[in-house]
Amino acid sequence: MLHFKCAKLIFLLAWTVLDTNSKFTGEFMQIKPLVASEQKYWQNVYIEAFPAYERIAFSELLTRQLEETTLKLSILWADGQNVGILVNVELEAKKTFILYLAIDPKIRSAGYGSRTLSLLKELYPGGVILESEQIGTSAENETQRVRRYNFYQKNGLLDTGYLTKNLGGIFHLLASEATVTLDDYLLASKSLGIDVVIGEK
């Protein structure tokens, strides 16, 4: 098992709007940089989607927003409305690590999660990395964990065989491409200021 200590600093820089036609549905979707007028919406979705122990303080995310160009804090937009939120770290070779991805609870089960993952795989063909809560532990939310894990598998985010421990939880490390490495994940974690522990299942 490997142990890594990273400075507790979070950085963010507003970025250019990314838009494309999602091959998953053929429908237009955008990933937009977060602006002041959308912060309340972003925080509401964030708080509802993630338990307190997994959340980095929103104020902390904003504090260093001008000091790290690879960290993106965004709104997901489709069909004329906001549909969710995203925090990701861009890596070399067109790869990215997804720290937070959440669809607005008011419009879940409408296909936006799959469309978002399809779009991200188009934007980052080198590989998309993300974490999914550990399953098989008899957790209180085990059903939800299994559903989420299976959803990612269905959408091409496959289990790498590694477990990660950070932010008070244990997670399966998933990736869309075999070219994704542990070094990619560690680099992203370092840029986020997150202490991580990695072990094989």
TrEMBL record:
Gene3D superfamilies: 3.40.630.30. It comes from Weissella oryzae (strain DSM 25784 / JCM 18191 / LMG 30913 / SG25). Keywords: Transferase. PROSITE patterns: GNAT (PS51186). GO terms for molecular function: acyltransferase activity, transferring groups other than amino-acyl groups. The keyword Protein biosynthesis does not apply. Transmembrane segments: none annotated. This is Acetyltransferase. It comes from the Bacteria. Coiled coil: none annotated. Residues 29-183 form the N-acetyltransferase domain.
